[in-house]
Specification:
316 residues, mainly alpha
Length: 316
Amino acid sequence: MFLEAGYRGLNEIWRYGLGIFIVLIGYFLGQIPLFLVQYSKIQSNPEIGGDALREFEKTMDFTLLDMNKNVGFFLLVLMFFFAFAALVIVISKLHHKKVKDTIAPDRPIDVRRIIFGFGFWFVLSVCIEFIFYLIHPEQYRLTINWINFIPLFFIAVFMLPVQTSFEEIFFRGYIMQGVSVYASNKWVPILVSSIAFGMMHSMNPEIEKFGMVTMQTYYILAGLFLAVITVMDDGLELALGVHAATNIFGALLISYDGSVLQTDSLAKTSDVNPYLMIVGLCISIIIFLWVASKKYNWKSFDFLISKLNPQGEPQV
């Protein structure tokens, strides 16, 4: 059982507090290369003033700092490599757990599930975006620049999955399993990890553009969906695929002003309706849950509110 795997290893509360702190240290260390490049650009270009810096913080548009978008995107994703390394150390050394147990504790990691999650969610995203295009075609424009897109493609395909995998293992693995040790029902860790996932995105530029309540609704709903498919499928593989598909779609195919992923994508939309985004997400979630439940013979969704059934007492 995925949640019950949290009982393995050492689970004192102080270990989780220290573990989260170590992961944050790794995350901030990963920002040093980006900071150094930004500092160099600012020092060498006196035209970059306070207004440009403040606008950059709101939009994550690296061109405001006279930086190539691909270089900025590379450095932005690079910080998650440091965070991921810190997370692996925390799980294996601080908690004496296997990293695999945060992905597929009771079976071999199923790559086919990851591929299905990625492929099916990517197709759903394309279909929903095409419907939005049919509603407002005037808001879309092609922005193809092959010189910039080709390196972007390799950065997105080979680096973004590290970022999304870090977030999945941290929130749906480490945090959700950790909360399970001290909860009696499955819905508690599902809800707590989803709210934490939403809070992590509070600094994203989408919050500034579309509002805290609207975007937190979107983020927490996405977090709940990823947590639900993880618990129902008894493994993290589907969520790993879905999350990677979401970010790669946003980086490569269609970007928009206000997105944290400011890239030279194939197309761009000028006026995003966040409420339509939420509706599109809900439609995609319903379709994915129905198909996945049939494909993998899931239990009834009442399973999500059932009591946890640990095989032994937590080691505290």
